[in-house]
Amino acid sequence: MERSEIIKRCVSFYEEMRSNHEERMLFFVLTLFVYFRDRTTGQLSLGGRMNSRIRREALERIVGEGDMNCIWELRMNTNTFANLCELLQVHGGLTEDGHVSLPEQVATFLIILAHHKKNRSLQVRFCRFSETVSKYFNKVLKSVIRIQGMLFAKATPVAEDCVDPTWRRFKGCLGALDGTYIEVTVPESEKARYRTRKGKICTNVLGVCNREMGFVYVLSGWEGSASDSRVLRDVITRCNSLKIPHGNYYLVDAGYTNGPGFLAPYRGTRYHVREWAQGARAPRNYQEYFNRVFIIVILVARNGEQANVE
Prior knowledge:
The protein is of the alpha/beta class. The protein is built from 12 helices and 5 strands. It is 48% helix and 11% strand. A hairpin with a 4-residue loop joins β2 and β3. The longest helix has 20 residues. The protein starts with a helix and ends in a 7-residue tail after the last helix. It holds the Pfam family DDE_Tnp_4.
């Protein structure tokens, strides 16, 4: 109903009831005046003020009560969250428009990614409409894409004069890559394609890291049933492929094969950490020696810690 029609009906009702209920009508007119004044000036109603309070409290519970809740909800501590907000604002062009605060925008985005939350879950948690949740999720996503060059690390090869005992045997190495499974929710008709060998419904994500564990490249979206070699083939043939300078390479595990730009361990030879556990026999040939050194390096690249295979 149009605003003018509402006013006409109110005036008609007022004229009809004024003689018999003058005090009540005065209260009615004052209430009506306050309502339209608040609508015009943008002041919040009681319900709006309550919703704003709920939103502030929800955000405060996440980022205002220490690192524990923040890490659980957003997968990062409060300092990292503050730095990310600043980075998105300064370099990603993310802004506040007076409707949703910048920390709430980023927190909503991270909660959806970290916990695979549905739109309706965020509607309830922050008292927002579904359109609002979608709008600001995409707004933050676009800001993240703008700063991807700052978020992704650069890979530098191992130098010829490297003296690091972990990396000195792998001249020209850029880092390591591997795939990982992330559980997802898909329509019933597509579950067979996303089911892994262990029966879980997942997507196969390939990550490439430099020697300092910084992500250089990430490819997501492949079904859980896809083999690692198939995903790697897509990585090197797609238009935005992984770029590997000539003469350099990444370390890959036994699920991949050797090829230009990729170095895998010897197959059919001891390779896994448990096979090199303390007390196991020493390498008997150059293949076993290579695999023993290889697993130490690839675990450092993955986890940042030395494998106990001495």
